[in-house]
């Protein structure tokens, strides 16, 4: 049974981690977002926002709700309450007159197209070639001509060092290669926001550096807003300008990476980092 409509966005909010550019609407905003799986309340009125161009890392123990946050942003999950805004545009509901109405799927898709995601398990289309994986959404969702989509895909394959595998089946690729294709596929949609969910966790250690190198280069050469979940603390430290520590779906601490990784103030963060960093 569906839950009641989201709360009024004008009501006062609790603790609210936030950065915005000086004139800016945040790229991502969560307002009192609630997400439950059955009786399991994963997010309980979560508030946070990410400014345009920010690189924000989410850390925290397994089960703390990090993946759920990213999946909500991709509309792979639906919130039970609250509002999610992309560039100030609500994703699921909006306030019309004096009531909340659901946003039609067509408009929702427009907002969703601004967001790209790379998953831990790559999630490529297994029966397609590398090139077909990359041009699929640009052609069918954005309506690009095949020629333009192929041209762009070739540039991206070059960028991720996979040009020579253009016509290979995805099933013939190693994990690291698949992940580089998955990154190219996400970028092919020209997203304003890139979500990265433990993208190196399923890879052999010697491959991890390659994939991180590709991401580092994207961070250096674009202004894409990034929200990443990673256990690669050195990488998080290099690319992100802000780190949020989650526990039980709540932000327990927010800091710049230097402070978070060398001098966290919250006991829960100290314990977590000690366990992760050894
Ligand atoms: N599809 C699902 N069905 C039921 N429970 C889920 C589902 N996805 C996630 N959960 C639960 O939500 C909680 C948060 O999970 P998740 O967001 O994956 O955490 P994290 O990414 O921080 O490890 C966990 O308790 C998990 O079991
Ligand atoms: Mg996860």
From TrEMBL:
Localization annotation: Cell membrane
Keywords, sorted A to Z: Amino-acid transport, ATP-binding, Cell membrane, Membrane, Nucleotide-binding, Transport
Gene Ontology molecular function: ATP binding
Record's compositionally biased regions (Polar residues): 10-24
Membrane topology: Peripheral membrane protein
PROSITE patterns: ABC_TRANSPORTER_1 (PS00211), ABC_TRANSPORTER_2 (PS50893)
Phosphoprotein among keywords: no
Keyword Membrane (UniProt): yes
Pfam families: ABC_tran (PF00005)
Span of domain ABC transporter: 28-273
Sequence segments annotated as region (Disordered): 1-24
Major place of residence: membrane
Annotated PANTHER family: AMINO ACID IMPORT ATP-BINDING PROTEIN, GLUTAMATE_ASPARTATE IMPORT ATP-BINDING PROTEIN GLTL
Family label: Belongs to the ABC transporter superfamily.
NCBIfam families: ectoine_ehuA (TIGR03005)
Descriptive protein name: Ectoine/hydroxyectoine ABC transporter ATP-binding protein EhuA
